[in-house]
Amino acid sequence: MSMVGIKAEVHRIDLPAVRHVAAGRPFAWLRLGWRDFSRTWFTSLSFGVLFAVLGWGLVNWGWRLSHLSLTLTTGFMLVSPFLALVFYYLSRSLAQHQRPRDGRRLFHLVRRNGASIGLYALFLVFTLSAWERLSAILVALFMKGDFIGGDYFSLMDLFTAERWVFVAVYAAAGALLAALVFSLSVVSLPMMLDRRVDTVTAMMASLRVVRDNPAAMVLWSGLIAGLMVVGFATWFVGLAVVFPILGHATWHAYRELVEKT
Fold this sequence. Notes:
By secondary structure, the chain is mainly α. The protein has helices at 25-39, 41-61, 66-83, 85-95, 103-112, 114-142, 145-148, 164-185, 188-194, 199-212, 214-233, 239-257.
C-alpha cells in the first residue's frame, strides 16, 4: 500500500517595518494635523461640517430609543477611520506637492486598492452592528422599562445613583471594543490608501505598531477619544474642526510609524 504525502504550504505575510517613536509624539502629529488643516481649510472644514451634520442627524434620529442613541453616539468613533479617508488624501497630496482639490485622484487611489478598502469598511460596519446588538442587550439587562420605552431620552438620565452599574459596564464594554478597533485601524486605512496592500497586512501592521509603541499609542488613543468627546459635547459643532485635524494627524502618524517600501 503506497503512502501519499501532502505538503502544506505556509504563506508568510511580509509586513512593512515599524518605527519606534517617543511617547509624546502624538502631540507633534496633532500640530502637523493642524498645519494641514490650515493649508486646506476650505475643503477640510467643508467635509468636517458634512460629517458633523451626519453624526448629529444620526444621533437625533435614534434619540427616542435609548440603546440606539447610545450606540450611534459611541459608534461614530468606530467608523470614523473610514470617514477620514478624504483627510488622509489631502495630507498625502500636500506631502507630494500635488493639487489636493483634485477629487479624481482620490477616486483613483481608492479604486486602485478598492477591494481591500471595501473589505475593511465591511469590517467596520459589522463591528458597529455588533455593538448595536450588545448595547441593546446591556440596556435591557440593566435598565428599567420606563427608561427603555420612554418618549424622550437624555444622557443626563444616566448620571443617577441607581444607574452607575450600567454606566460602568457599558463604558467597559465600549472601551474594549474601541481598543480593538483602534489597534486594527491606527495605520490601516492610510496604508491601504497609500499602498497596494491587502486588509490583513494592514491590520497586522497596525497591531505591530501598537505592540511596539505602547506608550505613544495609549496617549494617541486618549487624545482621539478626548477630542471626539469635545466634539460631541458641543452638539457636534466642534466636531467639524476636530475630526479633520485628527484625520490629518492620523496620516502623519502613519508616515512616521511605518517605513516606506
